[in-house]
Design brief:
There is one protein chain. The protein is of the alpha+beta class. It has helices at about 5-30, 55-60, 70-75; strands at about 50-55, 75-90, 105-110, 115, 115-120, 125-130, 145-150, 150-165, 180-185. About 20% of the residues lie in helices and about 30% in strands. The strands form three sheets. It has a four-stranded antiparallel β-sheet with strand order 1-2-8-6. It has a three-stranded antiparallel β-sheet with strand order 7-3-9, with no helix packed on it. A two-stranded antiparallel sheet has the order 4-5. The chain is globular and about 50 Å long.
Length: about 180
């Protein structure tokens, strides 16, 4: 008899015992006598809106260019970047008996606030400012002035810029996460 068969004969009973123990343990976990509890939290709504937001615009990542301390001290602001939200499939006739036709919209940007600006993480002494195409600044959590809806597709243009918040400057890479919503009325 070879040495390998001798080791097999000694190891086989141990492996069988471990397999049986594992099967018993997994059966005990799946046994109906051991109750299992779980919680499911759901939230959502079905709404009738005159427009949809283009899926490409729902999750945008905007890369800001480099701003210098000199720009911030001299101008009170640094780099800026244009971005857009596209309303698509706008149908101004209401499909609901309870709601009148929507002819206007309002956009609200939200996120942590810092001296009326959107707070950033990573650098200090600056915040983000969003303005609409007419130059109205967005205040976190407050709707911008309303605009008129047009049938079909409509592009909403905005400017995102880095602005001094009159606090001491600290250089660094920065980031922020902002949310937006469009209300129709």
């Amino acid at each position: 008899m070879s040495l390998a068969c001798s080791i097999c004969k000694k190891a086989l009973p141990s492996l069988l015992a471990l397999s049986a123990l594992g099967a018993t343990f997994s059966f005990a976990l799946a046994s109906p006598s051991a109750p299992e509890f779980g919680h499911v939290h759901m939230q959502g709504s079905i709404i009738d809106t005159p427009c949809a937001i283009s899926t490409a615009d729902i999750h945008q990542s905007i890369e800001m260019s480099v701003s210098t301390v000199g720009e911030m001290v001299l101008n009170g602001r640094g780099s800026q970047k244009a971005f857009s939200l596209n309303l698509v499939n706008c149908d101004l006739n209401s499909h609901s008996q309870e709601q009148p036709d929507s002819t206007h919209f309002s956009t609200t940007f939200d996120g942590p606030s810092d001296h009326g600006l959107f707070r950033i993480s990573g650098a200090e002494g600056v915040g983000l400012q969003i303005t609409d195409a007419l130059g109205h600044p967005a205040t976190p959590g407050q709707p911008l002035p309303s605009g008129a809806l047009v049938p079909g597709t409509q592009r909403l243009d905005y400017i995102l810029r880095l602005v001094s918040n009159d606090q001491p400057l600290k250089v660094g890479e920065y980031h922020a996460i902002l949310r937006f919503k469009v209300d129709y009325f």
